[in-house]
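Dear support,

I submitted the protein below through the web form. The confirmation email said the job was done, but the results page showed an empty box. After a refresh the structure appeared. I'm attaching both so you can tell me whether what I see now is the final result or a partial one.
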Amino acid sequence: MRKKWLPVAAGFGLGAVMLLSSGFSAMAGTSGYDAYKTAIKNTKAAQSMTSHVDVTVTDNGTKVLSGTAVVKMNHKLQTMSMSGSMNDGKKTHEMQAFRQDGKMIFKSGDQEEYRVMTQNAFRWQHQGGTDAAPNMPKAAEQVVDALMGNIRNLATVENESDGSKQAELHLSGSQIPAVVNALGSLVASKAGSGDWEHKSWKQDAGAPHPSSEWHPSLPKLTDHIQVEQINFDAKINPDQILERQTAEISITGTDDTGKKHDLSVQIHIGLSNYNQTTPDRVDLTGKPIKEIQSDEPKRGWHH
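What the results page shows now:
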């Protein structure tokens, strides 16, 4: 999946998960956090689930990037399917990914070719089990809590009449931890660089780049970069499982011409079909295929 749209899509997708997880872990000192913590554990314990992800990025009120994806995961079967699209304001780019039969399969909507990569078992799992969901070590959770400091007291969890719960953490100005502001500033400054290409494409002689004409018009912020607002919200269903998570992040800054930019990132994640999800499969019979090698470092939380 070495494509220019991949770092963008993966960056926003993984960033959403990490921001939401890190942000809500700041609720550790509130009376309602136990309910959220239970929901997180129940969500991670699910053998399968379906995620609907929507991402929108605006610059001074103008939409510059948007994307949607449906991701189906089954940890027990070690299978996955993803169908998504990204729009840069000029064109929509579609993409697909599958994990099946011990292989990762990728396809860009503007290419006929399927790229197939054989991998060992996913490392996004506990040692000692092949079907465990990803998990963050306790030490990392403690570090996040320490960095968040007193803002954990600003989080709230409300009980709804149907047994569900609504959790939220809204931060602005001086409430935003310095480390979060620094991270947001770094991401914002790099997002507009335009260098989305993975180095492996340069080494893959003869393979046409699937999205060489795609250039999302994200501004390159160089000065006065500041995270102005962070809003996290989550809905926990009556079964104490996460049903929805959202994040809205506002970042301001200036480019090298001195023009001010107000960037807004909105992420919505809907979770459903717990323990009932079967990922889609792709039949490669008769389809053009290119075998690719995995040069990615092994990842995962280990205990």
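Response: this is the final, complete result; the empty box was a page-load delay. The helical segments are 5-25, 33-45, 138-148, 178-191, 199-203.
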